[in-house]
Design brief:
single chain; mainly beta; Pnp Oxidase, Chain A; nine-stranded antiparallel beta sheet; 1 helix; elongated
Length: 123
């Protein structure tokens, strides 16, 4: 199950699935890791520990992409691109950092007997 392809203000989760955060690492490499993320308040939200590689990479470059999709050869896959902003005015526990990705664009990819791509832009 995955996010439903609808306008950003109506995106909802149909079920839990793996989301991945892709962030630039040093020397133009990419750091990709599975993470739990949610869509709420017109943004994607995720957490990481302050000493994790993801947090270190995001402190140097906040641009990245969150991806999710089906675990079959048919269905929908999604990409949300944007800037991950560290939220400093939220209640946090221990060394957990909360990030918010408010994306200007996203992509939905249908796979199966007929493939398609849809780009969404939000203001």
């Amino acid at each position: 199950m995955a996010l439903t392809a609808v306008p950003r203000d109506r995106i909802k989760c149909n079920g839990l699935n793996t989301r991945r955060m892709h962030v630039p690492a040093h020397r133009a490499a990419r750091h990709v890791t599975p993470l739990p993320a949610i869509w709420a308040l017109n943004a994607m939200w995720f957490t990481t520990g302050d000493n994790e590689q993801k947090a270190k990479n995001l402190s140097a470059n906040q641009h990245g992409a969150l991806t999710t999709g089906t675990d079959t050869l048919t269905g929908m896959d999604y990409i949300i691109e944007g800037t991950a902003t560290l939220v400093t005015d939220a209640v946090r526990s221990g060394s957990v950092q909360l990030y918010r990705v408010q994306s200007p664009k996203g992509f939905a990819f249908a796979t199966g007997s007929e493939s398609s791509q849809t780009r969404y832009r939000w203001s």
